[in-house]
Amino acid sequence: MAAMLQPQIILLKEGTDTSQGKAQLVSNINACTATADVVRTTLGPRGMDKLIHDNKGTVTISNDGATIMKLLDIVHPAAKILVDIAKSQDSEVGDGTTTVVLLAGEFLKEAKPFIEDGVHPQNLIRSYRTACSLALEKVKELAVSIEGKSLEEKKSLLAKCATTTLSSKLIGGEKEFFASMVVNAVIAIGHDDRLNMIGIKKVPGGNMRDSFLVNGVAFKKTFSYAGFEQQPKKFENPKILLLNIELELKSEKENAEIRLSDPSQYQSIVDAEWNIIYDKLDKCVQSGAKVVLSRLAIGDLATQYFADRDIFCAGRVTEEDLQRVAAATGGTVQTSVNNIIDEVLGTCELFEERQVGNERFNIFCGCPSGHTATIVLRGGADQFIEEAERSLHDAIMIVRRAMKNSTVVAGGGAIDMELSRYLRQHARTIAGKSQLFINSYAKALEVIPRQLCDNAGFDATDVLNKLRQKHALQSGEGANYGVDINTGGITDSFANFVWEPAVVKINAINAATEAACLILSVDETVKNPKSESAQGEAAASAMGGRGRGGAFPGRGRGMRRR
Amino acid sequence: MGFQMQPYGIQTMLKEGHKHLSGLDEAVLKNIDACKQLSAITRTSLGPNGMNKMVINHLDKLFVTNDAATIVNELEVQHPAAKILVLASKAQQEEIGDGANLTISFAGELLQNAEELIRMGLHPSEIISGYTKAINKTVEILEQLVEKGSENIDVRNKDQVICRMKAAVASKQFGQEDILCSLVADACIQVCPKNPANFNVDNVRVVKLLGGGLHNSAVVRGMVLKSDAVGSIKQVEKAKLENYSKTEEAKVEELIKAVADSGAKVIVSGAAIGEMALHFCERYKLMVLKISSKFELRRFCRTTGSVAMLKLSQPNPDDLGHVDSITVEEIGGVRVTIAKNEEGGNSVATVVLRGSTDSILDDLERAIDDGVNTYKAMCRDSRIVPGAAATEIELARRVKEFSYKETGLDQYAIAKFAESFEMVPRTLAENAGLNEMEIMSSLYAEHASGNSKVGIDLEEGVCKDISILDVWDLYITKFFALKYAADAACTVLRVDQIIMAKPAGGPKRDQPAAGMDED
Fold first, then answer.
1. Which of A80, A507, A521, A535 to mutate to test the interface with B (most CBs of B within 10 A)?
2. Which parts of the sequence are annotated with region: Disordered (chain A) (predicted)?
């Protein structure tokens, strides 16, 4: 009773929010399911796009799970974990971001009734982990290797993978067209696969079919000075000089001061300035280069100087493009014009300036080292091209992963159904509670084909029953059957070339399980009030506290061990 | 009540707005209550089946963890008495690096039992003297419980190391301890110096890369830098480059040439590298790496055995380091530079962790930290005691016996101290969803019949001999955890008055408390 009389004990800071127990766990699960519901409808070839209008007024249309999750700006701590796994999937394999969120959401949804019935979460977690490792083994077992095929064969196989990815995107209508483009681009950059060696340039106007692949580098014509028109715009086998200096008067960066006693001396200083730049230009010309590119400005003087000597030049080329040109032509970027040796000059078969839409493009083709490719995208609206770029990025990533790991599995929900069947079968051999849990894990995997049907407007129950029957066949011949998106029935996905790289599925299942287990293992949330520096609008309430608040950042973290 | 209508006594001396609490009801019991609340928060995280907590700190950073030290750190505990417990757990964390949860939970339990004694009518000082006697006896008994033959271990023997490390790591990442332990053990053994007592936890680095799963994690002999570089060649030399202006073109070339002539193939710089310098490095086919952190640079020196040079000039051959290979690889969309030394003798190892979310990675890192710290502790003192609550039950039994021999009121306190040990098996069972009463009684029965090594098998939910399960705790961890807990409990009990001066002017937000949090 003594406690009743006393004021309440303040253990934690004012404004701290704590919640604990089963209710907390269930509410976390609900939040995650709600998040998964947002991206649910974007899955598969018949998935719908989302239009996201953010607070800056930018409009994004996308059906890429990672993009949507990033733009949603989720604040719920548990649901944030789903955003994390979508990002992780994006960086690891590039595609399958919707799948991973959906799977995690479904695992949690299946776990919810058990939690409500009082099952200890740790039991669930353990079973989910077992199921996950079983499923991964099965994926590896089912995967078909495309290693050791000839280049032509490999190309067509990779194109199949790219087609599967692209079919679920906005540019799905032209999937074959883009798939071969993507495969060519990836093969062009070879094994040293730096992603930034594939450039994607966007030019509004025209239609999708007008997009093309440049086996080399292409970039938009840079800002040019008078005299540019006189320069030749086409070379065969030119030498290319790449610079990182400005060819302009007044190039001194530092403030310099010169005091003159005699006005006639002024002329000598001006002369010296002109001499410096003429000297630089001379050296460029002497190197034998026919194309001069620089990251910094090339002034009008230099432009005309080069024009007189039939040399093409472009200044203010972006760093990325310059790096790409360097990689493609075999040249190196020079920071000085002194001592230019032949080794540092690049070359290519053909350089030309071409009109694309209402833009002019500088294009380098037939590059000797060939480690670059550029895709020029055309399309009607800005948002459309943006989305097309994201889709191509996904497809590029998929092809790269497929090249690296070179095993594929059947898509269209076939692999998920097969895993589900395998786990159910395995569950029967287990005594105890974990049989139930593994069964629910197996059920959760079915969400992929189910959602594919739902999104396409088919009767999911019907299709799923047909699939289950096929997969249950003793002979195992039905293992590759998945949803047929065209007819609304089922079909052998593998024979119809609906393929995805095994690594996509492996990573998706892994990440989804890890996230689900993490959320299940949380039973308490403590939210500390934000420190004043973190909340900008706290100015009104904190007059004196402001200055102190500034000392907050880093304090919390500085206390970490070591 | 503390706030009377008329100011008198101490109230007259202090400024308006202070708080003054005294006496058993107001001070001691209230303190105990606060500590109990704190230990209730951490208690559910104890043991392998403990639950995680989500803590969002004042910077809006999310922590998902069951590492007690992290939880109490981020909780920003305000109550002065509860803070003593936090400090005790921090002391434990610094001393051993593991067992923080045991400290808080045990201290909480001691205080809860003390409350009962106080309500019975015992004076806090009697409880304190009883507790002090009890902890001394406990330490004595603990020493007897040490597994024979465990004083000597070969810290380079992976199996022996894993066996001791497992319990610590399993309590953080249950179900993944096998993978983690072997990673940690590998890394630790690699960097263990000739005299194991000089083991430096700083030499085991952790690099977290998003994507993949735990089974993709690996140990790299050498360093992994999360940055890209130009080129890819062997051998490393170290030099700090200054940023040169362009007019000194010839000078720069001369310097770089000197470096190149010395046989170096890689330049690692702490400061920025000028474009001009980079240009010449490319010309002379030197690989250039930039490490902006000073500590990171020092570690790099240790890895390669090179000497950092302040000035760019021709380096001595002695100053040059060596690594077997430096490669730039792409892992999960991030480009990393890996400096590897395959043969022994290198002093830094890096654990590359993979996981699907930042929170998972952070938690894995904490588990690894605990593992590494355990290794350090075991290098100092490798004695082990039975784990899985076997030690606690044995202590409870023996301290209880000891209490009967005491005359005077201490007896009650010692008996309660013994009872407090029951908290560990009870919580372990509770967290695992087992019937705690059943487990407790069968544990006591086993121990009474002389099987002092019987503990809980959480997988099967029965009591088993620890030597079969192979769950061992380090003696030194237990020792400090119990000692700190008892000390903290006594300190809290000793307080009978709380006087809080009026917070200095300004807004109500409790700045003084936040300031105290800093330590």
1. A521
2. 529-562
